[in-house]
Amino acid sequence: MTNQIITTDVAIIGAGTAGLAAYRAAIANGKRALLIEGGPYGTTCARVGCMPSKLLIAAAEAAHEARHTAAFGVHIDGEIRIDGREVMDRVKRERDRFVGFVVKSVDGIPAEHKLAGFARFVDNTTLQVGFDGGEQTLVQATRVVIASGSSPAIPEPFKVFGDRLVVNDDVFNWDTLPHSVAVFGPGVIGLELGQALSRLGVKVRLFGVRGGVGPLTDPQVRDYAKSVFQSEFAFNPDAQIEHMGRNGDKAVITFRVANGESVTETFDYVLAATGRTPNVRGLGLENTGLALDERGVPLFNADTTQCGTSPIFIAGDANNFLPLLHEAADEGKTAGTNAATWPQVNPGLRRATIAVVFSDPQIAMVGKRFADLIPGSFVTGEVSFEDQGRSRVMLRNKGLMHVYADRQTGRLLGAEWIGPRAENIAHLLAWAVQQQLTIAQMLDMPFYHPVVEEGLRTALRDVAAKLTTN
């Protein structure tokens, strides 16, 4: 039952990172805007993503460092004790603090600009908003931004585990650490949480398929990364699962190991880190006439975020194009601006791509991936961090970097690597890619001594030498 009608210029479905950016952009362009949210305020990053995961990783790094001081001649007497309740208490307290900042910013938005409920398209610019069984509001807009985010994808066979099956959202609500966890999916989430839990004393086995390690596409870097992680915890990157089941309050998994032997292990929990699905089901997109892809996501222009020629725009995790916080913020701004100026739309800002996995060693990718490059059109520079000076000083000397340069112009195209302080080097390389610098120009930049970035210089010199001989 509809109890009221609201009119607005721009209706925004979702109040996460992309939705908030879209709202601010629409308002800045002089339009009325309405934020529609069916769940609690607070972004995916703050609630269940980048911030709570880094809090867990920070605890894991503290535990790992405490166990590995002897090589420096520093000996810690007694047992390193990890209190799972204290670990998770800090994770939740700090997580709630970060969420609080987001909620506070939303609280500052006028009440008449916000509407609680789940939205469903009636037509291209009309939305029905409310909760199941409750009164509904009809929102009549002239433009709509879809910024509904994404949710963890759970393959049907995993449901056999019942309440022993968890996703990353659940991990950050644990009151203490479990004894054992099987992790499926060695992508960013699985790799980060799997290693962190292992370092915090949890028995972890990480299962993958087709040999993948994080987002890496360069075969040599991927193989190096696989060996690094396998040396620390149980990691089956190309798992052959024979059976999955439940025995009491335990998850039971039977699989084959490298020598072909069949092994059965039990776990307290199974963490499904098998990707995320755009939150588009239930939006009533069939009522819009938009063309949809196989996932049900509207086809859209990645530069303008516009869906076809309609007054509908899609941004952030909902379009699953580049599901990263900074990309969601940029897309939200583009969507909000173009919604405000529609039917005139313009390409928004697309920065050089940058992605970081906060494993140890860290993994990073900048610019074009190895898989994106045309064979024969580029040359590769390499550096191993195993003998890199600063890395050896810190005993953080595991890593392999590949940088890619255009064979004709000498311009930096991208890089993939695993190594120490990758999060910092990634920014240097992303800036270089965005500025379209050549390898020669990058080598003219200052490098201090002794720093980890000298490893980058070694890789650049390797590229430069190959460019002169080709």
From TrEMBL:
Keywords recorded for this protein, A-Z: FAD, Flavoprotein, NAD, Nucleotide-binding, Oxidoreductase
Entry's cofactor comment: Binds 1 FAD per subunit.
Active site (UniProt): 449 (proton acceptor)
Enzyme class: oxidoreductase
Essential cofactor(s): FAD
EC number of this enzyme: 1.8.1.4
Residues in coiled coil: none
Residue ranges occupied by any Pyridine nucleotide-disulphide oxidoreductase dimerisation domain in the UniProt entry: 355-459
UniProt KW Oxidoreductase keyword: yes
Residues annotated as binding NAD(+): 185-192, 275
PANTHER family membership: MERCURIC REDUCTASE, PYRIDINE NUCLEOTIDE-DISULFIDE OXIDOREDUCTASE RCLA-RELATED
Protein name per UniProt: Dihydrolipoamide dehydrogenase
Native source species: Silvimonas terrae
